[in-house]
């Protein structure tokens, strides 16, 4: 296997406590993890202790996840994420939009969110989801482009790519640099009746489903995309495995598809990279 810089996203080990998550990810070969805000607050550990845990295992935090109506302005969850970035370090925050707003009405709030995040050295990745109010990569790019912030971009999740019906040609108008992170997983051959339920419970490991994973990865490479990669598999089946086994399966599947596609996941820095 090629040496790849891979992150274990928050929802791949979603039921593991923070210590177990870090230890399992490191043992599997990951050098990064993702966290939901609840993972941070629920750990009930001092920030210094969390930093020591991460440092001990050579793990950094790539992404923070939380759902809130950021179009309404600042949110208490946002402040907690900024505190995490300042004290522990992260690279970016992923934000979808589950509340009803027109695309033009999202531009100014997205720009304002990016500006607030920039004060803490964070990127913001707008994640399109086919069951949300920003359903396609084209819609996400419309908001990001109109906002025009250097730390604003797109989070590209392969499950959402496949289920939104995206094709490589949809990358044409999206600059390669606008895709700030890639989340890898795969899909069942037939969509379920409830897209939200499927997305949160029945994803497959990268390269082990019906999606043209290699084709998408190669298209991204040819488009010039070089973004940090993570494995994000919401799966009840994976949840049933011990954390160490789930992490190993996730890492091996992620490295395998990247290698087969001829893609190298690049290294990345957190907000506290220089300090650490």
Automatic annotation (TrEMBL):
UniProt domain Xylose isomerase-like TIM barrel: residue ranges: 22-245
InterPro entries: IolE/XylAMocC-like, Xyl_isomerase-like_sf, Xyl_isomerase-like_TIM-brl
Naturally occurring in which organism (per UniProt): Streptomyces violaceusniger
UniProt name for this protein: IolI protein
Coiled-coil ranges per UniProt: none
């Amino acid at each position: 296997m090629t040496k790849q810089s891979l992150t274990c996203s928050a929802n791949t080990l979603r039921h593991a406590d923070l210590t177990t998550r870090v230890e399992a990810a490191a043992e599997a070969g990951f050098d990064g993890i993702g966290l939901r805000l609840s993972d941070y607050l629920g750990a009930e550990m001092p920030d210094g202790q969390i930093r020591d845990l991460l440092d001990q295992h050579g793990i950094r935090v790539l992404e923070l996840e939380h759902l809130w109506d950021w179009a309404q302005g600042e949110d208490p969850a946002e402040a907690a994420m900024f505190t995490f970035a300042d004290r522990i370090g992260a690279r970016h925050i992923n934000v979808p939009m589950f509340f009803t707003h027109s695309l033009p009405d999202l531009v100014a709030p997205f720009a304002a969110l990016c500006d607030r995040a920039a004060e803490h050295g964070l990127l913001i990745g707008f994640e399109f989801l086919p069951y949300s109010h920003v359903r396609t990569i084209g819609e996400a790019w419309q908001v990001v482009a109109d906002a025009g912030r250097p730390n604003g971009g797109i989070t590209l999740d392969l499950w959402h790519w496949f289920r939104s019906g995206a094709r490589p040609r949809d990358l044409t108008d999206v600059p390669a640099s606008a895709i700030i992170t890639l989340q890898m997983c795969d899909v069942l051959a037939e969509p379920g009746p409830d897209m939200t339920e499927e997305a949160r419970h029945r994803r497959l490991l990268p390269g082990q489903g019906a999606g043209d994973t290699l084709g998408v990865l190669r298209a991204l490479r040819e488009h010039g995309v070089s973004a940090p990669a993570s494995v994000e598999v919401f799966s009840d089946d994976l949840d049933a495995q011990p954390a160490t086994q789930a992490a190993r399966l996730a890492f091996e599947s992620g490295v395998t598809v990247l290698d087969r596609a001829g893609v190298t996941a690049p290294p990345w820095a957190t907000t506290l990279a220089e300090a650490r």
